[in-house]
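During the second half of the funding period, the structural biology subgroup turned its attention to how the target accommodates small molecules. The most pressing case was zinc ion, which had performed well in the primary screen but for which no bound structure existed. We therefore specified the complex as follows and requested a full 3D prediction, including the ligand pose.
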Amino acid sequence: MADEIAPGIHRLATDYPHVCGLPLWLHVIDAGSELVLLDAGIASTPESSTAPELASLGLGLPDLTLVVNSHAHPDHMGGNAVLRRHSGARFAAPALEAGWLEDNERLVNELWGSDPDAMALSDAERSELFEMLDERVRIDVLLRDGDRLPGERPLQVITTSGHSPGHIAVLDETSRTLFTFDDVQGRGRPYLDSSLWLAPLYTDVERYTNGLTRLLALDFDLLVPSHGDAIDATAGRKLIEESLDWVTAVDTLTAGLLRTRGSLTVRELADEIGTELGAYGGINLQTVRMARAHLEHLALRGGAEPRWHHRP
Ligand SMILES: [Zn+2]
């Protein structure tokens, strides 16, 4: 049953907890001439969850006029193709990620295949991803920092570039509700069905911290993440601070390991982050991308020397 988190904004449940063991909420906003859906879920979400959730509000998928993808990860845009089939909605997404949003091969190769020595997808994992992604849909409205979403309601786009290179937040100026989607990650999130945690994910340390700092400066009463419950401003600011503290912790770990060991591979650092800083399950997409981001960050500041060596 969809509940109203602020006037004209309803939170919709999804099938994601059953599929991937994490909460995932979508939101529908009455923006006057536009009925806006924030994020699409995975391929199975629109029919299994979004349609019945909308029905509880007396609405249906055909009523949607605008679908916004906060970033190009499967749980936020995999439902696009089904939504297109059931509605005349236009699709809006960060201009910076249009390439990933319109090309599954490119997304999977560049995100999951960036560090083949550290991590490689099995065939089963690859086909699971493609199943969640479904067919790609052309993005009609390319969003840039400072844009307003179409409609009469002042919905401001803020490019945070943290969790993924073009990631956006959306601020509803009417109710001072800040949708941060996956950008405010704290120390990660516990899985619903195991004792493990999902680690934070970001690909550029500087961009992640700059984006978080921008969010901290905004006026908001409610912070709404995709994979957790909405929280008030005090708790929201605390979570942003915790996200920044996490970055410092990984930086300290990276510099310390390099000092004692002399050299470090992405895989070695990912394993340390994924075991030493918490129960993150060692090597995975999140820890590998963070390891690489922090090594690059250190190299840019002159604290490490990137080297390649010949493999016979
Ligand atoms: Zn997500």
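Two results from this model are relevant to the next phase. Residues 246-300 form one domain. Residues 73, 75-76, 182, 226-227 surround zinc ion (CB under 6 Å).
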